[in-house]
Design a protein that fits this description.
Layout (H helix, E strand, L loop, with lengths): L1 H17 L2 H10 L8 H14 L6 H14 L4 E9 L6 E9 L2 E2 L8 E2 L8
Antiparallel strand pairs: 1-2, 1-4, 2-3
Helix pairs in contact: 1-2, 1-3, 1-4, 2-4, 3-4
Length: 122
């Protein structure tokens, strides 16, 4: 399963740079592996894959890979992108995460205000 997560994460990392978010979500979602994955385990697999791949993996590709794993396992996962005030005046911090029924999977995203969903996964 770590290899499946690593493959999705590698595609997500490259796709976000070259094809944008919407296309990357579709592409990563096309990789098929039907297997039972519980949400916490999926998040752990993506973290392990992220640590194994060379270079840094930002939150957006991680969230895209996790969303795809969970949807493939029939969980109603939704990608979220949010913003929060940062240290300086007028500065914002952004973060991407995955939610199930309005609850962030395996992390605390409470400091971020989720932006409206910008597109359904196709």
């Amino acid at each position: 399963m770590v290899l499946v997560a690593a493959a999705r994460l590698a595609v997500a990392r490259l796709g976000v740079r070259l094809a944008g978010v919407a296309r990357t979500r579709r592409l990563v979602g096309r990789q098929t592996f039907r297997g039972p994955v519980e949400p916490e385990r999926g998040a752990e697999l993506v973290r392990m894959a992220s640590a194994a791949l060379p270079g840094a993996t930002l939150c957006l590709p991680r969230a895209i890979a996790l969303e795809a794993l969970l949807i493939e396992a029939d969980h109603p996962a939704e990608l979220r992108i949010g913003i929060a005030p940062d240290q300086g005046p007028g500065q914002l911090s952004a973060h991407a995460w995955v939610e199930l029924r309005g609850v962030a999977v395996a992390e605390d995203a409470s400091r971020y205000t989720a932006l409206p969903v910008f597109g359904a996964r196709a």
